[in-house]
Design brief:
Pfam families: ADH_N (PF08240), ADH_zinc_N_2 (PF13602). The chain has 297 residues and is an alpha/beta fold. It has helices at residues 41-48, 113-116, 120-133, 149-160, 174-179, 191-198, 213-220, 248-261, 277-286, and strands spanning 2-6, 16-19, 30-39, 61-62, 66-74, 86-92, 98-106, 140-144, 164-169, 183-186, 203-206, 226-228, 240-241, 268-273, 292-296.
């Protein structure tokens, strides 16, 4: 099979499209013929070696966590699923023609494979950090870097819970944030004052890692009310860095319910062929996205 792999840490140029043996489903796992794989910032952060000290990996290594596809191998102990089922979920080395998933759920009706591949990690992350930041119904949450996949999920889930959301993004994404029910402003010079004009801030999430933790602490008045998933300097500000996933299976189940209810939709901004994984990483790293980037097989 074809898969994307890298033999050393580095820039996008270290990614290679190689021939590899097909993986096999172990106990409690399923294998899918991948139709689409979600592109997440953690993918290029791992490739760059940002976590090599805390979470070392064995090289060469595959790339990707999220995927949607068709079940073609079922591991021992797995029930409630059949060959040919269309599923979306999380596993490893998903930038490939075949991948093993450790958590999955049936694809909601009406979703394409490309759309489904964009949900698993971002919904898990959104649910996790909303719980960690502790904002309550009736409160106001500031989301820095709100237009990407995680931000899109956070805005919709928070609004459904009765939380007011202020989101920052580039000028081109202001209407998009408003369409998701957020109060929107840009992140250019003077943004903290523009946020204050929109209302008080009870808690804040940093999704972009753009060096704004000091301002977020000032706006909330307490570093304990700020959570980041992108800024590795969090400890310097007394802010929590959230990098350990919770229950992906629970998140997939909730995602499927929200999608079916029509209360959660994350658009696909751009798709890439497997051979263009490096370009997908370059674009993901540049930010300014509206929804998700997806690799199609």
């Amino acid at each position: 099979m074809r898969k994307v792999s890298f033999t050393e840490y580095g820039g996008p140029e270290v990614l290679q499209l190689v021939d590899a043996d097909q993986p096999h489903a172990g106990a409690g796992q399923v294998r899918i013929a991948v139709r689409a794989a979600g592109v997440n910032p953690v993918d290029w952060r791992i490739r760059e070696g940002q976590f090599r000290e805390t979470t070392p990996i064995e090289l060469p290594a595959g790339v990707g966590l999220d995927a949607a596809g068709v079940v073609d191998e079922i591991g021992a102990g797995v029930t409630g699923i059949e060959f040919g089922d269309r599923v979306f979920g999380e596993g490893s080395s998903t930038y490939a023609e075949f991948a093993v998933l450790s958590a999955w759920a049936p694809m909601p009706e009406g979703l394409t494979f490309e759309e489904a591949a964009g949900y698993p990690s971002v919904v898990e992350t959104a649910l996790r950090i909303l719980g960690q930041v502790g904002v309550q119904p009736g409160g106001t949450l500031l989301v820095s870097g709100a237009s990407g996949g995680v931000g899109s999920a956070v805005l919709q889930i928070a609004r459904r819970r009765g939380i007011t959301v202020i989101g920052t993004a580039g000028p081109a994404n202001q209407d998009y944030l408003r369409s998701l029910g957020a109060l929107a402003t840009t992140y250019h010079d003077g943004w903290p004052e523009r946020v204050r004009q929109l209302g008080r801030v009870d808690a804040a999430l940093d999704l972009a890692g753009s060096g704004v933790l000091g301002e977020l602490v000032e706006l909330t008045g307490d570093p304990a009310r700020v959570v980041t998933i992108a800024d590795l300097t969090a400890a310097e500000f007394g802010v929590r860095f959230s990098g350990v996933a919770g229950s992906v299976q629970d998140a997939l189940t909730e995602a499927a319910t929200l999608i079916a209810q029509g209360t959660l939709h994350i658009p696909v901004e751009k798709v890439y062929p497997l051979a263009d994984a490096a370009t997908a990483h370059v674009d993901s790293r540049a930010g300014h996205s509206r929804g998700r980037r997806v690799i199609v097989i």
